[in-house]
Amino acid sequence: MDNTYNNINLNLESNYDSDSDSSISENDEYFYYSKYKIILKNIKKYIKLKNYSYIKDKEYEKDKVLTKHNFKNFINKIRDDDYYIFDLIDINKKKINIIFFKKNSTYITNTVDFKKVIDKLNKQNKNKEIKIILISYDKLSTYIKKIINNTYGYIDFIILNYNNFINPFKMPSGFINCKILTDIEIDNLLNKDLQVNRLCLPKIYYDDPMIIWTNGKIGDIVKIISPSNISGLRCYYRLIIDRD
After folding, report:
1. CA separation for the pair 172, 165 (Å, rounded)
2. Which of 38, 57, 199, 207 is the most buried if burial means most Cβ atoms within 10 Å?
3. Right CATH number for 177-241 from 3.40.50.300, 3.90.940.20, 2.40.50.140, 2.60.40.770?
4. pLDDT tens digit string along 146-184?
C-alpha cells in the first residue's frame, strides 16, 4: 500500500474555522459539521488514490489543502440539497459519481427521492455505463436496496459510510505491505504457483478498510504480507468481492 495513505492525518484542526462563520455553528441543526472537513479531505484523498479525474469541480482538483472557500461550498450545498455530488471519470473514461448524503437525508430513506437523484445522473450520462459511490451515515432502506438491485442493475453501485472517511484505514504496525496484483501476477499465481481458480481464493469485501485505501476493486486479488513467528513473513492472497 502507498505510504501516502498509511498514515492519514485525523487532526480536527483545519484551515477553516467553523466558528468564524455564523452559518456553520455548533448549534446548527445539521449533523457532523465538525467532522465534514475531515470527511471532505479524505474523500479527496480517496479520489486521488483511485486515479479518478474531476469533470466540473475544478477547485477540488487544484487545491491540495482544504480551503475556507471549497469547504463552505460543500457545506452550503449539503444544507440546501441534503447531498453533494462529485462528477468524475476513471482512467478508462468511465463516468464516476460520488454522492455524499447528509445525516438523516430523506434521499437515503425515501425511494421516490432516491430515484430522483439517480435518474437525474443517469439522464445526464445518457444511460451509458456508470459507477455510483454512495457515502452515507445512515443505512440504506430495504426498499432502496431492492431498487438498486432490480431497477438499476446496470449501474455499478458502491456503498460506503462516514466512518470510512472519518477514521480511514491505517496499516497496523504488524503489517508489511498490501498490494493489488497485476494481470501478469494473477496469471502466475493462479496457473503456476497455486494452480487454482480465482474463485477458490479466500475472499475479502470491497469495503474492508484495507481495500478501500488501496486502488483495489471488485474482482481484483490483493497480496497481503504480515509478520510470522515461524517464517518471519507470511504472504496470503484475497479475492475482492461485493456484498450481496
Report:
1. 17
2. 38
3. 3.90.940.20
4. 898 888 878 888 889 888 888 776 655 566 678 899 999
